[in-house]
Amino acid sequence: TRRVIFDTDPGQDDAIAILLALASPEEITVEAIVAVGGNVPLSLTSKNARKICELAGRPDVPVYAGCEGPMAARPLVTAEHVHGATGLNGPDLPEPTMPLQAQHGVDFIIDALRLEPPGEITLCVLGPLTNIAMAMIKAPDIKPRIREIVLMGGAYFEVGNITPTAEFNIYVDPDAAAIVLGSGVPVVMLPLDVTHRVLTTPARLAAVRAVPTKAAAAAAAMLDFSEKFDLAKYGSDGAPLHDPCVTAYLIKPDLFKGRHINVEIETSSPLTIGMTVADYWGVTKRKPNALYMRDVDAQGFYDLLTERLARLP
Ligand code: BDR
Ligand code: CA
């Protein structure tokens, strides 16, 4: 089993990514969850993370609050227009009773990496990369201790979803993304090129809805909510599903195909800030720094998700 720390801004798709992990203890051990400001402000993402743990019957998973907003002096861009005012609109989940940990999420990440042997901890990042970049700046010694960073972010062939050229997670904190991609730590990227193929078709939604667990019912309500927004936008047979691709990659990497390439982040152009400039065809001699995924077995993904949601309460 891989020991992972989730860094996240829940978010319905973040929530499903975490549920999928908590349902898969053979492959994934969730050491902790660190919240970041993103889809909605930190006060909500750190609360939503706890709602998800309790939904999965796992109030023992420690939840930390990290950074409120981007590392440089930029305003936090949020996405209530996609996720609703709470960030987790859709299911009716009770207020969490488990506590939020007192330590700052960035300090927790640093301590956790220093305490464990090198190569032990994988960071799964489902939101803006602020906490990870801040940890790397504060404690550069943690970089060689990270086994891998698996993140949802970026877009190249599928272009952007928050601006014409930028994907949301990278756009919110491009400086942080640039630091992470320049860190030398092995990075796996699940960009929109993949997540826009993992469509919530009516048959796939029905399969999730048919699973007789509380967690699956909540997941179905989350998927329904996201679908309403995205269907109108993309006019496809279902809405994209983003963050659970990170978890699915950890469980079944063979579902995905991609290439080791160089990816640089645009951090200053007013027109294209947050763009992930992915050298997919190797036209520069820049060193590969990421395994950039471009294809996915979407039905295999939904079969996995449906099967695993049946294992939760
Ligand atoms: C990403 O942005 C967020 O709104 C989603 O949770 C996902 O992490 C997709 O661009
Ligand atoms: Ca997210």
What is the element layout, followed by pairings?
Elements: E1 2-8, H1 12-22, E2 28-35, H2 42-55, E3 63-65, H3 80-83, H4 105-115, E4 121-125, H5 130-138, E5 146-152, H6 168-172, H7 174-181, E6 187-190, H8 192-195, H9 202-209, H10 214-234, H11 244-251, E7 256-261, E8 263-265, E9 276-278, E10 290-296, H12 298-309
Parallel strand pairs: 1-2, 1-4, 2-3, 4-5, 5-6, 6-10
Antiparallel strand pairs: 7-10, 8-9
The structure holds beta-D-ribofuranose and calcium ion.
Task: Assess the beta-strand content as a share of residues.
Answer: 15-25%
**What's the β-strand tally?**
10
Largest sheet: 8 strands, mixed
**Overall helicity:** 25-40%
Instruction: State the secondary-structure class.
Output: alpha/beta
Number of helices: 12
Terminus-to-terminus distance? 21 Å
Strand order of the largest sheet: 3-2-1-4-5-6-10-7
Name the helix and strand elements from N-terminus to C-terminus, one letter apiece: EHEHEHHEHEHHEHHHHEEEEH
User: What's the rounded overall pLDDT mean?
Assistant: 96
Residue windows where pLDDT falls under 50 for at least 5 positions: none
Rg, alpha carbons: 18 Å
Q: List the bound ligands.
A: beta-D-ribofuranose, calcium ion
Principal-axis shape: globular
